[in-house]
């Protein structure tokens, strides 16, 4: 018999082996107004001087024997017209010293990348931005499952090296080797709710963090620093281009540094990272600030890539670049999935920003074109779990494929409620507390496509099942196992080749709580459709 509730209703977590869970909706009400941290908050202020590194971060490479260290030196600049002159990336070196003890760092990596990016608006009265110098250095030859101490900066310049930090590499690749805990969060932002989410997440001591897009919401601001909860509601008719206030990225990097400098974080793009500027250029900040294992995984793109963490193979995909079967992303995904050996990495987990399976009114069936193009490929390779964000609420599905309960389909989990300022609203009244199956809340099909996702109008009325002839169900769909509107984060704990425990940690009303948990169980003998290399 199916479960589906949180731990308050049963002694042990439910299991997907029990079959589809009975749909559960937890009514939590309005989360209240969400407020950004101001630029006067000491946690977002620049605390270094000269060429000293700040915003230090660790990211994984494709394999646990390698990792990326990133940081920024020098201050960003803001100004109008041509008054902003970029810093010279060659003015300061990119060096990481590392070792197995804080007082002994015998290894040095100096082959990396340093760059500066600009966000430029060719309109009178708008302020342009140029970043500090961003550094990315890859460490190689690391031992899996090992704690490394490191310093980054330029040892040739006095005061230009960071304090000693430490991080742990992922376990060795193999079917009996897994990270202890993986934190999953989306749409994080930089609000007081963000701080609650991050504090609760850190208490769970994750070994890895997945951030599923919509990082700091710099595009809810004008270039003069004026912000809003809904840009299109407030500014759409008064600005010549969708502006951003790029210093919010620096504020976010400073606030997050205690986390990102010690726990590897893997990021994928969301719609709030598009940030259009002069010459129709997009994603400049996202592409510049984070290190991605793109080259190592053969994608050569910051938008989609893959990596291993013990016996888990992660595939991070892009909802806002071409995902069609004829495109580069699809061809890369198809080629890469063919190489995945499930006897070595039994778990195959995918992540991207916009969910395919959401029952909330906001963003309902918005990613339908991407689903139509890619779902069959992911199903044929028996992807186990899909993590997404975007919708500012929590929802977990039953195993599903093509809107139908399927014991071999992945479990889709949407966690787009990390704490963002955008609250529960889109550009118009639909709210993340409203469900498309409630009377009066089913959106017009023509309103669902997102122009930045491409593909046109792909969502239409269902042709079979309980919702046949309608665009929305008249009750919580059977593929939706659990949903609630709350801020929080999730923790994934993989136990072995077949069992993983998923927990959703709600921080509603600033109190951490486990609201939903389930054992996700693989059945490789029944479901590995496109692979003869099974994980026993």
Can you offer a commentary on this structure?
- This protein has helices at residues 192-203, 231-234, 247-260, 284-289, 328-339, 368-380, 524-527; strands at 14-15, 24-26, 54-60, 67-73, 77-80, 95-99, 107-109, 112-115, 118-119, 127-130, 133-139, 147-153, 165-168, 182-185, 208-211, 265-267, 305-309, 312-316, 347-351, 385-388, 394-401, 404-405, 411-415, 480-484, 488-494, 499-506, 513-521.
- It has 7 helices and 27 strands.
- By secondary structure, the chain is an alpha+beta fold.
- The strands form 5 sheets. Strands 2, 17, 18, 19, 20, 21, 22, 23 and 24 form a 9-stranded mixed sheet that branches. The protein has a 7-stranded mixed sheet with strand order 1-27-26-25-14-15-16, with helices on one face. The protein has a 4-stranded antiparallel sheet with strand order 3-4-11-8.
How many beta-strand segments? 27
First-to-last CA distance: 26 Å
Structural class: alpha+beta
Main β-sheet: number of strands, strand sense, barrel status? Answer: 9 strands, mixed
Would you tell me the overall average pLDDT? 92
**Shape call:** globular
Rg: 22 Å
Descriptors for this entry?
536 residues, alpha+beta, 27 strands, 25% strand, disordered N terminus, EC 3.1.3.2, metal ion binding, acid phosphatase activity, hydrolase
Structure described in brief:
12% of the residues lie in helices and 25% in strands. With 536 residues, it is α+β, with helices and mostly antiparallel strands.
